[in-house]
Amino acid sequence: MKFSRLDVSFFILSTLSALWNAGAQDSCAHRCGELLGTCSCQVTCQSLGRCCPDYKEFCLQISPYSGSLMGGKDFLINNTALYPSSALKCRFKQQIITSGYVDKDGKAHCISPLLYETGFIPFEVSADDGSTFPYSGTWLSVHHSKVSDGEKCTLVNQTKWQYYGTPNTGGNLTVTWTRQTLPATHVNIEVWGYQETGDSYSENWMAEWKYLYTLARELPNTGKYSFIPVPAEGNYSTWDVGTLRIIPSSYLDGQSNIPSIWSSEHALAWHLEKDFRNDPNAWATAKCIEWDRKEELLPNFLEEIIDCPCTLAQARADTGRFHTDYGCDIEKGSVCTYHPGAVHCVRAIQASPQYGAGQQCCYDATGTQILTRDSTGGSTPDRGHDWGSPPFLKPPRIPGFSHWLYDVISFYYCCLWADNCDFYMKRRPSSDCRTYRPPRAASTFGDPHFLTFDGLNFTFNGLGEYTLVESDLTSLRVQGRTKQAHFSNGTGVQGTGLSAVAMQENNSDVIEVRYSEDLSLEVLLNQRVLNFSEQTWMDLKGLFLYSTPDQNITVMFSSGSGLEIRGNGGFLTLTILLPEKFINHTWGLFGVMNGNPEDDYTFKNKTTMSVHASPQQVFEFGASWAIENGSSLFTYDTESLLNSFFYGEKHNASFLPVFSPYEDPADPLVEEMVSCCGSDTFCRFDVLTTRSLQVGSSTRLSHQNHKLLVEHLEPVISCGWLEHPTNGRKNGTNYLLGSTIRFTCNEGYELTGSQERTCQVSGAWSGDTTQCSRVTALKQVIIIGSVFGIVGLAVLARLGYLCRKQSVRKE
Length: 811
Fold this sequence. Notes:
- This protein has about 800 residues and is an alpha+beta fold.
- It folds into five domains: about 5-145, Immunoglobulins (Immunoglobulin-like); about 145-280; about 280-425, no CATH class; about 440-710, Mog1/PsbP, alpha/beta/alpha sandwich (Protein Transport Mog1p, Chain A, 3-Layer(aba) Sandwich); about 735-775, Complement Module, domain 1 (Ribbon).
- The chain contains 15 helices and 40 strands.
- Strands 11, 12, 13, 14, 15, 16, 17 and 18 form an eight-stranded mixed sheet that branches. An eight-stranded antiparallel sheet has the order 24-23-22-35-34-33-32-31.
- A hairpin with a 3-residue loop joins strand 5 and strand 6 (about 95-100).
- The longest helix is centred in the last third of the chain and has 34 residues, at about 775-810.
- The chain is flat, with a radius of gyration of 33 Å.
- It starts with a helix and ends with a helix.
């Protein structure tokens, strides 16, 4: 019998899996690459938990697997036992080496280093003092604001910290921390500063965290320290942004990459010297003016950032391009410290391409965007995107900290510590929404029903793996896998549902979301299961990944395309959002996105059929989009998946679903179905095929959510900001279609032009430009004379009337 290379590979992998399950856990018999001699082994070996993608001897399993990019996190290597005498070295990115150690139980530990980037960072471990590094794994570096409170020390009353030294402030400041996080009897507290030096946007522009001085030494590790700030010896007044670091007292001052706890980054007002304390307003004004002069020399990043959505509904619906700004979140009570009058803000997910800039958009209780030209609580764009952007390591792309230097501390200079906010708003004006174009949405849910980008609705319940969307614009691929539905008694239904979705764009990481055997959602990154126990937000290669506590998964690609995957009634519900640039660049089950549903039934061979096709013809259309093994993004890490999808046909032609379920008036379920579903045909279809009102109800909810999403993403016309006339006022700050702005002039001025202007369908304001002109002396004389003349005539008329009346009485 002749065996193919795939058969031999599978036999070897099955044998390796059996050895693994039998307990051969101490070493790999062979390295993955040597075993199969091909990269195809990578996925399968990873699923066995043995070999790494680069064919290192061991894949390290660590706990915790993530921590702040500031470093200092002690993490345990769970699956490797080493001798306590081992000279352990941990090497990150093949260049940053930290000292590890082996505890009394033989467990290896590494210390995460100070990094200037987020995302999964490769690291290796040496047990021979750095001669060889046979062990490897990945460490998730996280934005400093997104780590748990237990990993940071807290500045009690942070507002006081940030204003300390200004009028009416003083007294004790307090630092608290979780003492168990740092296993040491005594600790030191250090002050670190952050700066970016060199010529802006050039090769020598560098980011730097620098140890400044030690605030306190040999403190008992009680978890709390209070002190009254005094100016430190030396000149540190140039360090306006920084943080505190707590370390065991056994380490040297400023020693790098050691166990530590960091505070949040903050304005170092409390350590600034006499010039600040003597006259904070004058000091801050000088800083504001200096910042303004520097900004004048920097490139205009405003020209390349995305415009804001016009309404709060659009901003919250466009999840592929915008995400909640946690500093102003309507879900958490709308505590918008820096944006008074706002109830919710969002940030653009992707940084601008050339300058790495960010966008922020804020909205009031009516859902209207707030502009800085009308209010200091308005939306402000950012020279440094708060989440940073690749390529990292170069300013202003450092996550969090570039944003602090260019957009936050400057706000303190101009707006909080001095009354010069006009300087700041001039450099950070709100973008309105005149060029904003909402994305198009498509969804699939239930047994499964499809709603295309162009609004075509149909049902395709094939059994297999299919292309949902592909695009030649960004090499976007979204693939779906279906499984057969079952009745409550376990027998099969003549229908299917979405059980897994896999996706990739360009050379990004591959994300797969699927139902596990216990019907919980499972997320895989490059064929390996992700653990969301520590992080709900992950910055990955070419995408961001977000998971809510109820396991709704959002994937945000660098193109602005977004996918939302939710578990619903035993099947997945998928929504895809694509920006306008994808028009005429999509195909698959969701059709050609071009506003014309007539060509949405485009087969893989590019032929089309009528939108009035029969359910059987629609089934043939869907089957044409079955994927092939060579293009599959899915993981086949169980025998069931291998047999059903890897070795089996991608479209199971022997499975025939119910195309048009019959509503039998005598069926007692039909009456309940009508009550549950109303006129929703998708809901009725699923109740009849699955005999489950719960499945039908889930389908109806998904359908309603899709229709609401499409409604929120309707285009809105904006006529742009209207300024009030000089020496006058305006009533209204809504600049969208149908809004009317009214104008009045100050006393002593008269209005010319239009007293009110309305935003029209054309995107232009009605009427003429409004002006308020001073009333001249001659005009005042004429007006006063006219008034007196009118009054005099009125008096004479009245007297004449009274005289006539008197003469009549005498007669």
